[in-house]
Design a protein that fits this description.
mainly alpha; 4-stranded mixed beta sheet; 20 helices
């Protein structure tokens, strides 16, 4: 069998200029190179100054030794001083060299290297792709469990001047949610950052920028930690006090100056980075076509969401000593479940995010170019890809055909993920199937699903406190038009307008760094943002007044329907609505207090001063918030009916917590177990109150739906 049996065809025709660098790309490269030149000029001056200082110390120490030879009793003292001066110069020289030459390894959790003898079809696929793109084969190929793909390398200062071969990383969560043509596009996009002779300069700038960032912000050298520990104990050793502290201050000064300069060129580089993303798209479209690129971009968010949910569920299942049999089967099942819920068409096993579906979403009216964004928006990418209009024959085969024993690989990675997530724990006793996972999700959705008649009107927002309305009234319009998608869309636009208003204010106040923006597809200068914000604020006020009145009308009509049925039905209606308001208020109060508790716990763990007196002071702050929390938990158990299926141990755990007096201190240190119990119980209280509130909403809406059904 040919290793290239599974390789989608290349486009028959591509525009001649498609992969050529644009004027914007070239302009950004020139700007960044100018910034980098300034950076290295300052860098060189700082390094030479430090080198001269280190040399002066060493020379001065040696000179002092020569001068003091034969001075009798005082010689030893000056020899000691000379040794300290030489040591200081040596330290400066050591850290200067270490600062420059220490490599930084790009490491990530769950990364596993794979080899050609294990997956020959995959390597043949990549090799053919690199030939088509006229770029080099990756040095190594890795896989990880997530929804991503990347090219990375280990870098140091020297890698700015010496080429480093890149490694390719492939996320299996991505493999699981694309077709083969789309997989080709994604891998080509990553390789595209380092292909094409005409863009080598931009790739070089990319490598330098990455190396500078890691050198300044991601270096954790053992020598630096040793010096910091020396500085800590030097408080009681005065004769050594100056050496570690001044050395650290000098290194920090160099890093601060370079960091300030880096921030200036970083903004320039972000513009180049966006152009490089566009170019990588162009290169990938040239070998994979436009439609696969559009499909993969649109499906990425949904794929990520499904994997993230499955990954979160892995932790929840571990509490039951269970683990997925295959996390990718669960991801696929969830992808189909959500697609069916949103009425997305499934094409060869994967959902199609169509133009019609996107048209249903409420988008922002404010558009601007984020000067600090490293990637262009999906809309900008789509526009360029569609403009290229490169036709290609789609191959909708799953990319899993490129891997040997795909099912076994998926199960092994799932087990590895579990082992890495819970080190030291034995393998899970129980396995969870994808079908069981989806069944539980379906039951969960059924539990919280509001009646369809309301068309999402009450979804994801609180009930309004309707005051002073004691009698019902007939609805003025047609009862069949009470709830529909047009009204729901109008409400969504109202909330999006609030977000857009905040964006306009941020632009006007220069919190968002942009000189130009678009509003309702019209271009404006920053100076117009304030006027537009005022205008939008009036629109929001009108929408708010409409919604408030509409909700009052609905309440009075529903109350009227209940009154028509019976006095008892009207009382039940009012009681159900008031119960929702009560639980909403209790939930807000619990959320507020939970925030206070969590904040104090975080302060406790972030304390630099771990001396007992400081620890006790902060534990008092934790205890103070706990005293406020406990009565709220007691009230919660009295007023909130928490079904066992929501959290079957919450009531028991809460009662045990209320009956126990935690000190949060054990042998003059933080009592980890007690702090963790407080932290988790606080989160669970908020979660349960929120869930119960949703169930009370459902009780009210189901009662109301029955009233409407009688009409």
């Amino acid at each position: 069998m040919s290793k290239l049996l599974h390789y989608p065809p290349n486009p028959a025709e591509i525009p001649v200029t498609l992969t050529q660098p644009t004027r914007g790309y070239t302009t950004q490269v020139i700007k960044v190179i100018a910034g980098l030149f300034a950076f290295f000029l300052v860098y060189l001056l700082l390094m030479l100054s430090t080198l001269a200082l280190a040399g002066t110390f060493i020379w001065g120490g040696i000179s002092l030794i020569h001068i003091m030879k034969g001075h009798g009793v005082y010689s030893f003292f000056f020899y000691f001083i000379a040794a300290i001066i030489i040591l200081w110069g040596g330290l400066l020289l050591f850290f200067l060299v270490k600062f420059i030459f220490t490599p930084y390894k790009d490491e990530a959790h769950y990364r596993v290297q794979i080899h050609e003898e294990e997956h020959p079809r995959l390597f043949a696929f990549i090799r053919q792709l690199t030939k088509d793109m006229q770029t080099s084969m990756p040095k190594k190929v890795y896989i990880n469990p997530e929804v991503n793909a990347a090219v990375f390398y280990n870098s140091s200062f020297l890698s700015m001047f010496w080429p480093v071969r890149k490694n390719l990383e492939i996320g299996l969560g991505l493999v699981n949610t694309v077709h083969l043509s789309e997989f080709k596009m994604v891998i080509a996009h990553e390789l595209g950052h380092f292909s094409q002779r005409s863009t080598k300069l931009g790739s070089y700038v990319y490598a330098i920028h990455k190396s500078i960032y890691k050198m300044l912000y991601q270096r954790h050298s053992g020598g630096g930690k040793l010096l910091e520990r020396w500085a800590d104990i030097a408080h009681t050793i005065n004769i050594y006090n100056v050496i570690p502290h001044v050395t650290l201050l000098l290194m920090q000064f160099i890093q601060t100056v370079l960091g300030m300069l880096y921030q200036q060129i970083h903004r320039l580089y972000m513009g180049l980075s966006r152009e490089m993303e566009f170019h990588a798209d162009a290169v990938s479209v040239a070998v994979a076509g436009s439609q696969p690129a559009i499909n993969s971009i649109r499906r990425l968010a949904l794929s990520n969401h499904c994997y993230a949910y499955c990954s979160k569920h892995l932790s929840e299942a571990a509490e039951r000593d269970a683990c997925f049999e295959n996390i990718y089967s669960a991801q696929t099942a969830l992808l189909h479940y959500i697609s069916n819920h949103h009425q997305l068409r499934i094409v060869d096993g994967l959902p199609e995010i169509s133009d019609e579906y996107l048209a249903r979403t409420i988008s922002s009216r404010v558009q601007y170019k984020d000067q600090w964004a490293s990637h262009p928006s999906d809309a900008e990418r789509e526009a360029r890809i569609l403009a290229a209009n490169v036709k290609v024959e789609m191959d909708t085969t799953s990319p899993w055909v490129l891997f040997n024993d795909a099912s076994e690989l998926q199960e092994n990675i799932t087990q590895n993920l579990y082992a890495e997530r819970f080190p030291g724990r034995p393998p899970a006793r129980y396995t969870e199937s994808a079908s069981g996972f989806i069944k539980d999700i379906s039951l969960l959705h059924t539990r919280y699903r509001f009646p369809e008649i309301f068309a999402g009107f009450y979804k994801n927002r609180p009930f309004r406190d309707i005051k002073g309305l004691t009698a019902g009234l007939p609805f003025k319009g047609e009862t069949k038009d009470l709830y529909n998608t047009a009204i729901t869309t109008r409400i969504k636009r109202f909330f999006q307008n609030k977000i857009d208003h905040a964006l306009l204010v941020a632009i006007a106040d220069k919190h968002i760094d942009t000189r130009h923006f678009e509003f309702d597809n019209r271009k404006y200068e920053r100076s117009a943002a304030r006027t537009l914000a005022i205008s939008l604020e009036k629109e929001i006020e009108e929408q708010s007044a409409w919604l408030q009145q509409y909700e009052k009308d609905l309440y009075q009509y529903h109350l009227y329907m209940a009154e028509q049925k019976s006095l008892e039905a009207a009382q039940t209606f009012r009681g159900l609505y008031d119960n929702v308001l009560l639980h909403q208020r209790k939930t807000r109060e619990m959320e507020s207090q939970a925030t206070m508790v969590i904040r104090q716990v975080q302060i406790l763990y972030n304390m630099e001063d771990q001396h007992l007196h400081a620890l006790l002071d902060q534990l008092k702050a934790v205890k103070k918030e706990e005293k406020v929390l406990k009565p709220m938990l007691e009230n919660m158990l009295e007023t909130a009916d928490i079904p066992a299926e929501l959290d079957n141990t919450f009531v028991e755990d809460t009662r045990r917590f209320l009956e126990t007096n935690y000190t949060y201190l054990q042998e003059n240190a933080i009592h980890q177990e007690e702090i963790v119990r407080l932290y988790r119980l606080t989160h669970r209280a908020v979660s349960n109150y929120t869930d119960v509130t949703e169930l009370r909403k459902k009780d009210y809406l189901e009662f109301t739906a029955a009233l409407l059904a009688r009409n």
